[in-house]
């Protein structure tokens, strides 16, 4: 018997339905993974609401999971039956007790990392890795801004950036989240509603920032631009408050010849060798203790709707996993 959470039409959390589905057999190049934990991410909300398009409906959403390889298809060499594996890439389908996925999208987990941590770290942790190490390579002595610093990606980025020797400014919505961000490496915290550019100007002595990492989107985009020094990098990688409206690129010139990018994990891990390198870098900082995972919420997979409600209401901190 196999169950998954499926949506038959786009909409609110109530569209997430627990259903019995056939146990798939792996095709050539695929592996069947029995999940031990599934990651919850805001991108799941985008697929549920229709902001991001699904190939067809009904569909099982979810991008991230960890478990054990139960069967492999013809030609698979990347993993073997019994391997402990994790992933964080498309196609969607993680909200299931078991699923098939292309074997070249799986990475083997170190023995020191448990399934819950792996399910919580893959999408968020690999996102933090490419943002900090490739999109803009953070260097010791720099001051950076991380929006949603108490969220899953935010807490990882605060720790990792601190490990790299950076000074971290984080934004959060409550004082409780501010304390959480400070405990994980944020040197300065700015609350939602404060004048962000003014706060950054004060913190940096007017120098402003080389980079802003923004997962919030519409509400923070323009204030973020005003936090950047000339030639600074605006890295917009999420839409928690809604998509960023169309922008006149002349604004980038007027504010100091700024760089703007909208990166995705899929692009940075499209080649298997890049996927493995990003994952191994993440596993390295976690096993060394430089970055600690914060699985602060656990829900039964069948209660995914409640998990989505809490995520959208900003009731969650750190990472959340769904347990089959």
Automatic annotation (TrEMBL):
<dbReference type="InterPro" id="IPR011032">
    <property type="entry name" value="GroES-like_sf"/>
</dbReference>
<dbReference type="GO" id="GO:0008270">
    <property type="term" value="F:zinc ion binding"/>
</dbReference>
<dbReference type="GO" id="GO:0003960">
    <property type="term" value="F:quinone reductase (NADPH) activity"/>
</dbReference>
<dbReference type="InterPro" id="IPR013154">
    <property type="entry name" value="ADH-like_N"/>
</dbReference>
<dbReference type="InterPro" id="IPR020843">
    <property type="entry name" value="ER"/>
</dbReference>
<dbReference type="InterPro" id="IPR047618">
    <property type="entry name" value="QOR-like"/>
</dbReference>
<dbReference type="GO" id="GO:0070402">
    <property type="term" value="F:NADPH binding"/>
</dbReference>
<dbReference type="InterPro" id="IPR002364">
    <property type="entry name" value="Quin_OxRdtase/zeta-crystal_CS"/>
</dbReference>
<dbReference type="GO" id="GO:0035925">
    <property type="term" value="F:mRNA 3'-UTR AU-rich region binding"/>
</dbReference>
<dbReference type="Pfam" id="PF00107">
    <property type="entry name" value="ADH_zinc_N"/>
</dbReference>
<dbReference type="InterPro" id="IPR013149">
    <property type="entry name" value="ADH-like_C"/>
</dbReference>
<dbReference type="InterPro" id="IPR036291">
    <property type="entry name" value="NAD(P)-bd_dom_sf"/>
</dbReference>
<keyword id="KW-0521">NADP</keyword>
<dbReference type="Pfam" id="PF08240">
    <property type="entry name" value="ADH_N"/>
</dbReference>
<protein>
    <submittedName>
        <fullName>NADPH2:quinone reductase</fullName>
        <ecNumber>1.6.5.5</ecNumber>
    </submittedName>
</protein>
<keyword id="KW-0560">Oxidoreductase</keyword>
<feature type="domain" description="Enoyl reductase (ER)">
    <location>
        <begin position="11"/>
        <end position="322"/>
    </location>
</feature>
<dbReference type="GO" id="GO:0005829">
    <property type="term" value="C:cytosol"/>
</dbReference>
